[in-house]
């Protein structure tokens, strides 16, 4: 199953340069990398990235990662959290996440 990570353009460029990421500042503070399911990604974008441009949506196969835990978060929903770094070679795809008049425009899953 694919899980999704939203990164800023600067974070995506840094990940490409480093070959991995430990996540955004909130991930570093929480001790894990926050992901969303397909059903949660739009709400995550609205809540944490409202009005932001220059974003990327990463699709990652959960089974390709070593330590993903589904834990309660927003409203008691279970969210995927990665307790490890995210290697670039585990990213299935990365697509721009443009901002439209009514919020972010999610691309079709290319897989």
Overview of this protein structure:
- It is a single chain.
- With 111 residues, the chain is of the alpha+beta class.
- It has one domain: ADP-ribosylation fold (Alpha-Beta Barrel), CATH 3.20.170.
- It has helices at 9-18, 25-30, 41-48, and strands spanning 2-8, 20-21, 33-34, 55-61, 68-72, 78-82, 86-87, 91-96, 99-100, 103-104.
- The strands form 4 sheets. Strands 1-4-8 form a 3-stranded antiparallel sheet. Strands 3-6-5 form a 3-stranded antiparallel sheet. Strands 2-7 form a two-stranded antiparallel sheet.
- The mean pLDDT is 95.
How would you summarize the topology of this molecule?
Blueprint: E1 2-8, H1 9-18, E2 20-21, H2 25-30, E3 33-34, H3 41-48, E4 55-61, E5 68-72, E6 78-82, E7 86-87, E8 91-96, E9 99-100, E10 103-104
Antiparallel strand pairs: 1-4, 2-7, 3-6, 4-8, 5-6, 9-10
What characteristics describe this protein?
three-stranded antiparallel beta sheet; alpha+beta; globular; ADP-ribosylation fold; 111 residues; single chain
* Envelope shape: globular
Number of β-strand runs = 10
Report on the biggest sheet. 3 strands, antiparallel
Termini separation (Å)?
11 Å
- The structure class reads alpha+beta
Q: Give the ordered list of helices and strands.
A: EHEHEHEEEEEEE
Mean pLDDT: 95
| Whole-number tally of structural domains | 1
CATH homologous superfamily assignment: Protein of unknown function DUF952
List low-confidence stretches: none
Whole-angstrom Rg: 13 Å
Give me the number of helical elements. Answer: 3
CATH architecture: Alpha-Beta Barrel
The fraction of residues assigned to DSSP E strands is 35-45%
User: What name is given to the CATH topology?
Assistant: ADP-ribosylation fold
- Write out the strand line-up for the largest beta sheet, numbering strands in chain order: 1-4-8
């Amino acid at each position: 199953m694919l899980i999704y990570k939203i990164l800023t353009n600067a974070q995506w460029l840094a990940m490409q340069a480093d070959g991995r990421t430990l996540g955004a500042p909130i991930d570093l503070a929480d001790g894990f990398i926050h992901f969303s399911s397909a059903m949660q990604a739009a709400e995550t974008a609205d809540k944490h990235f409202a009005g932001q441009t220059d974003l990327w949506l990463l699709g990652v196969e959960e089974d390709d990662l070593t330590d993903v835990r589904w834990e309660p978060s927003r409203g008691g929903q279970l969210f995927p959290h990665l307790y490890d770094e995210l290697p670039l070679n585990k990213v299935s795809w990365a697509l721009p996440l443009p901002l439209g008049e009514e919020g972010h425009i999610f691309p079709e899953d290319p897989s």
